[in-house]
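Section: Multi-chain targets

For targets with more than one molecule, the full set of components is provided together so that the structure can be written out for the assembly as a whole rather than chain by chain. Components appear in the order listed by the source. The example entry contains two components.
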Amino acid sequence: MTLPQLQRPPAISEYAAPHSLAEALDALADGGATCVAGGTDLWVQKDEPGRAVGKRLVNIMRVPELKGIEVKSGRIRLGALITMTQVLEHAELAKKAPVLRIAADKFASVQIRNAATVGGNIANASPAADFVIPLLCLDAEVALASLKKGKVATRTVPINDIFTGPGKTVIAPEELITGVEFAAPGKGFHAGFAKTGPRPALEIALVSLGFAAYVDKRGLRGVRLALGAVAPTPLRARKTEAVLEGKTIDDGLIESAVDALDKEIAPIDDHRGSAWYRRRLARAYLTQELQNAAAG
Amino acid sequence: MPLQVDVTFTLNGRATRVSVPVGASALTVLRERLDLAGAKLACGEGECGACTVIVDGQSLNACLMPAVDLEGRDVLTVEGLWTAAGVDPVQDAFIEHGAVQCGFCTPGMIMQIRYLLNRNPDMSEDEIRRGLEGNVCRCTGYKKIIDAVIAAGRTATA
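Its structure, encoded as tokens over all components, is:
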């Protein structure tokens, strides 16, 4: 009997390290390239069958247009190359959108937070992507750029419309994530993030949950609920949001909401945990976040 | 023959030029091309921290860093901590407190601690534990490592 041969990825035959957005997009223009930044996902996966790196590796670490955190006139923009550590250390961002800080703090380890980028967490499209969950709660838009007839063309896609399956997105091979943008939350905005795995650090979430709303006393408005690792993509739980919208938090509402959430999610059994356990966690986290919101 | 790219960077204070395979990690290049075997390959996927090095002041898992991205960077490995003045206070504290058993995690542990102490020489035990979440030791139970970090921090602030 012969064992099946593992498919080795094709060798990388070209390398580019662009120093501007236009150069980067030019290197991506034929659709045959793979981008790398922090490498924390790609360098683990690159030799796996089916996750092959394209024929050209494009190192985007030196593209200035992808850097920087801007907080101005009610809008916040994070460049695609912003690392989790930079999110943690940005005082104004932590004040305006603390949920990003909470999620970044629960992200992997120090060494990985020093390398892993906002853009990479989106592009990798893991159903358990930690940083995507608060971005879903902030209704963020993903800014994409590509070359059209030699000119830089841009479009924005709501982050909820980016993911199509595990590791799959609507981002075209010739497109590059340049950053994420969202409206700075206003007064009364409450947001929380919870995540668990068998240990606190370096854990791929068994379940992660982000909850955000404008809370007045116990009344909820503008409810946003997002979960990781309970569906093939990070999930915005719209039906459960509808149950909560405009309502006042009490025990009855919490019960209706967790029941609605249980119907809306589709977790799987895998080596990390059972679907049964994931459902228990999702219910517990939603209960906890609603209680936190009620407590103010 | 895989595609090779020349990279020029500063390694433990010395200008270094080396040809690297495009798909290689910085760790492979440090160990196999530059004969610096301090940083260790253990898990190879960023879970254990045995390969920790400091790049432009940030601690990183060298196993996850594309070697091509070394270009222009300032890299410090455990070999670079040993100067004419002697070993680093963290290394002294490890010896003093018996924080080494098999030693495989030690170089990565020391580099991560050096990074943490550069940012805050006066960490609480909780901050030390959180800072070392990405470094796995299978021998010591961490107690003596943490004692060593506290002692090294005191040396730095004394």
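The interface with chain A takes residues 2-3, 5, 22-23, 25, 44-47, 49, 52, 58-61, 63-66, 68-69, 71, 112, 115-116, 130-131, 133-135 of chain B (CB under 8 Å).
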